[in-house]
Amino acid sequence: MTELGLPNGARGGHLLVAFQVGDEPLRVAEPFGHPVSLDVRRLSPDGIAGLLGGAGFAVRARQVREPEGREVVPQAILLARKPEKA
C-alpha cells in the first residue's frame, strides 16, 4: 500500500479523486443539528498530484472550481492513471 492507501499493483487503472481545497482545517461540531466531533482536512491539488506521482500515477486531468451553493471553499478533482508497465 502507498501513502495514499492505494494498492501498489493497480496497473492500467484510472483513479478519480475529489476533495476540498485549502490549507485551514475545519472542525464540525453540529452539522444538521446533530452533535459530532469531525475534523476536516482540506488539501492542495499540487500536494495530492505529487503523492499520486509518488505512487506511480500520472495525473491526466485536473479541475479546481469555485464553491457553489452551500460550499464555502473551492473543490478539486484529479483524474490519474497508473501506466500498465513500470
Radius of gyration: 15 Å
**How are the strands of the biggest sheet laid out side by side?**
1-5-4
> Which stretches are poorly predicted, pLDDT < 50 over at least 5 residues?
none
Specify the structural class: mainly beta
**Beta-strand proportion:** 25-35%
- Helical fraction: 10-25%
How do the SSEs run, as a string of H and E? Answer: EEEHEE
Shape: elongated
Mean pLDDT metric = 87
Would you count the extended β strands for me? 5
- What is the CA–CA distance across the termini? 16 Å
Largest sheet: 3 strands, antiparallel
What is this structure's SSE topology?
Blueprint lengths: L13 E7 L5 E3 L9 E3 L4 H10 L3 E8 L9 E7 L5
Antiparallel strand pairs: 1-5, 2-3, 4-5
Description:
This protein has 86 residues and is mainly beta. 12% of the residues lie in helices and 33% in strands. The chain has 1 helix and 5 strands; from the N terminus they run βββαββ. The chain starts with 13 loop residues before the first strand and ends in a 5-residue tail after the last strand.
What tags apply to this protein structure?
single chain, mainly beta, 3-stranded antiparallel beta sheet, elongated
Could you give a quick summary of the protein structure above?
Helix content is 12%, strand content 33%. It is mostly beta strands. The strands form two sheets. Strands 1-5-4 form a three-stranded antiparallel beta sheet, covered by helices on one side.
